[in-house]
Amino acid sequence: MDDIFSVKNKVVVITGAGGDIGWKLSQKIFRAGAVIYGLDKSFTGIQKKQVKINLMQCDVTKNKEIDKNFKTIFLKHKKIDVLINAAGVTFSQAKLPSSKNIELWKKTLDVNLNAAYYCCMSAINYMKKNKHGSIINITSINAELGFPSNPSYIASKGALKMLSKSLAKDWGKYGIRVNSLGPGYIITKMTKKSFNNKKSNLLRKKHTLLNRWGTTDDLVGPAIFLASDSSQYVTGHDLYVDGGWLANGLVSE
Questions:
Q1: Active centre residues (catalytic)
Q2: pLDDT in tens, 57-76
Q3: Alpha helix locations (H) across 40-150?
Q4: Does residue 212 contact residue 220 with C-beta atoms inside 8 Å?
Q5: How many CB atoms lie within 10 A of CB 71?
Q6: For residue 160, how many C-alpha atoms fall within 13 Å in the half-sphere facing its CB?
Q7: CA–CA separation, 62 vs 58, rounded Å?
Q8: β-pair partners for 23
């Protein structure tokens, strides 16, 4: 049987490739045979040494930079098969409004939602030429549940989930699929404060059915599934990789 999970020679663009999730996906999907273009504002020295992964410095909140980079990729390969929007930020916010909180609100939505929209539309412009493409927007269990002191992040991920469904509706006629991949609590720099706090760590483990935190490796298989032709009849879907968090009705003592 043909390898229906193959991503060999697919041209994959990953935003936020300098971050923990984006970089892990870049490495593992490259090893699976894809041509990777990683976009981010900056990269570490170690990341820059991975010469087989194409790194492009790009501020994804600026649509002109996005269009320039996507055009460069398309002109070289005559296709863009997959876009993974992994760029994201989070800021803890006080409960009462303030000028600082408003700025954090704007910054969060600019990166988590607006930038994803810009990238989706730029990618769609080229995907529709070949009537084929898969867009994967990295959301979160925050797209489904309320969490304290982080309204901008929760709002941005909820909106990104619905943006995915809207784009899936509009562009399905061109063979373009748009899905959301929603992580639960994954061990990254973004979550290290909670992970390193014994009480917070245990509380989050208990919320899962598998009694553990997730790792960036846990997202690789689901991402490859959505990127590959094995999911060719899957669109407008929310795939949560959360250890069963959303299914857990009562936290055990």
A1: 153
A2: 999 999 999 999 999 999 99
A3: 45-48, 63-77, 99-109, 115-130
A4: no
A5: 13
A6: 39
A7: 8
A8: none
